[in-house]
Write a structure and sequence with these properties.
503 residues, alpha+beta, Cholesterol Oxidase, domain 2, 6-stranded antiparallel β-sheet, globular
Length: 503
């Protein structure tokens, strides 16, 4: 909200009104004696139909007012043309995505705890997921689409049990749970901030306000520099700007690897080599078919069903996920010369716990300069990500050949039936790959003896005081599912951690 400021000093300043930041700010403001300022670079989403009506979500990708597309560095083994679209508005990417809502598996959270995130195992996060579930409306995505039903039946033909993924994720096929209410998305802003006119007086929401850097008094964070001027924090500052902009803000503020910061003329406050490292994602391939009849339009978000599978029998949690799409997902195949069709459907295999790791780096000390983002897709030494993706294409073909769905299939559009060998499928799937838009891990949480950890299990940035991170940046490892609900959980827990030490 474009509001005049009565004060520029608050107990807490939360930078980023996105998936986690909106949650953290709302919970902190529940104490009437605590003043909170939530600073968001984009506009409000309240009352904006093209944001709130879930079925229109794809129109937000690259939207000039509600999103930002981040270019990535050249990918020697992947698709260099991927644009990572992020939501720049209240609710962040939870106001910008397809609203697929999963809790991570218990195995995911045990992996976090095993990576040094003490207190973030299944028992340590359970009550925070419960709070999200009580606040954010979630409901099944069943729109009664016969092609979706044919996909589900095809999975069952191959031996995958039909599951309710709202009750947990394991190998099987089923409809997704969505964080929505009827036709409208339940983003973090919709669930935690709307209606805005009823927000408590101690919560100030500044939209359309970019943050340039964190301000320090020696090694204590005391405020932030924004386009509206300085905002001061008596207690702490929380960075919730996302996996690209949170590490960028840290580095612009002097928190990061000393040598590259020094080369850019940024005074070093804390030499943390892990800032901007450990960039994670869910790389996604696509296989498409032209439909033999018009694809029905009954759908909540065009990708309302999917499948989880174990390529490796000893993987534990599923290592492969499908989204089933009621459209031609030809964003990257068409430019490569593959055919498309008006009536088409897609299966998009993605690697649930990809092993390739990337980086986010500063290009300059100018806050207006986008960061250098290098996902290093398909570069893990064992070739794991590539192998899982190829097996995903093969499994997708098996489902399409089932009696339940084959009658819907006119022809395979991409990669086409000529691509059969591992090498042929791999070349196709890597060079036309997309992303599920799940960047994470660039300010990872870890143990005190982990030299690459940026925050401790209390989300405190190492080497400084008064500064925490609460967003997908803190993920020490990728979770097996879409991360939106987990980011909301991080916001819930961050608020509790801050309340526990308030002076």
């Amino acid at each position: 909200m474009d509001t005049e400021l009565d004060t520029t000093t608050f107990d807490y300043v939360v930078v980023g009104g996105g998936t986690a930041g909106a949650v953290a700010a709302a919970r902190l403001s529940e104490d009437p004696e605590t003043s909170v300022c939530l600073v968001e670079a984009g506009p409000s989403d309240e009352g904006v139909r093209e944001i709130l009506e879930l079925k229109r979500w794809q129109n937000l990708l690259g939207h000039e007012s509600y999103g930002q597309e981040f270019e990535i560095e050249d990918q020697p083994r992947g698709n260099s043309n991927i644009l990572h679209s992020r939501g720049i508005m209240l609710g962040g990417s939870s106001s910008h995505n397809s609203a697929i809502a999963f809790k991570p598996t218990e195995g995911d959270m045990r992996r976090w705890e095993g990576a040094g995130a003490t207190g973030w195992g299944p028992d340590g996060v359970a009550k925070y997921f419960s709070r999200v579930s009580r606040t954010v409306n979630m409901e099944p995505s069943d729109a009664g689409n016969p092609l979706v039903e044919a996909f589900l039946a095809g999975g069952e033909e191959l031996g995958f049990p039909r599951l309710n993924f709202g009750k947990g994720v394991k190998e099987g096929v089923g409809l997704f749970q969505l964080n929505k209410k009827g036709e409208h998305r339940q983003s973090s802003s919709a669930a935690y901030l709307h209606p805005m006119q009823e927000l408590p007086d101690n919560l100030t929401v500044l939209t359309g306000t970019r943050t340039y850097r964190v301000l320090f008094d020696e090694n204590r964070a005391v405020g932030v520099e924004t386009e509206r001027g300085e905002l001061r924090a008596n207690e702490e500052i929380v960075l919730s700007a996302g996996a690209f902009d949170t590490p960028k803000l840290l580095m612009l503020s002097g928190v990061g690897a000393a040598e590259p910061l020094g080369m850019l003329g940024v005074p070093v406050v804390s030499d943390l080599v892990g800032v901007g490292e450990n960039l994670l994602d869910h790389p996604e391939g696509v296989i498409m078919w032209e439909a033999s009849r018009p694809v029905p339009d009954e759908t909540a978000n065009y990708y309302e069903a999917g499948l989880f599978a174990n390529v490796d029998p000893d993987a534990g949690d599923p290592d492969l996920m499908f989204h089933f799409g009621l459209q031609a997902f030809d964003m990257h195949t068409l430019p490569k010369g593959y055919p498309t069709a008006e009536n088409a459907f897609s299966i998009t295999p993605n690697v649930t716990r990809a092993r390739s790791r990337g980086t986010v780096r500063l290009r300059s000390a100018d806050p207006d300069t986008p960061p250098a983002i290098d996902f290093r897709y398909f570069t893990d030494p064992e070739g794991y990500d590539e192998r899982i993706m190829v097996e995903g294409v093969r499994l997708a073909r098996e489902i399409a050949a089932s009696s339940s769905i084959s009658e819907w299939m006119e022809r395979e559009l991409a990669p086409g039936p000529s691509a059969q060998s591992f090498e042929e499928i791999s070349e196709y799937v890597r060079t036309t790959a997309n992303t599920v838009y799940h960047p994470a891990g660039t300010a990872k949480m870890g143990a005190p003896d982990d030299p690459d950890a940026v925050v401790d299990p209390e989300l405190r940035v190492r080497g400084v005081e008064g500064l925490r991170v609460a967003d997908a940046s803190v993920f020490p490892a990728m979770i097996s599912v879409n991360p939106c609900i987990t980011c909301m959980m991080v916001g819930e827990k961050a608020a509790d951690l801050l309340k526990s030490v308030k002076v």
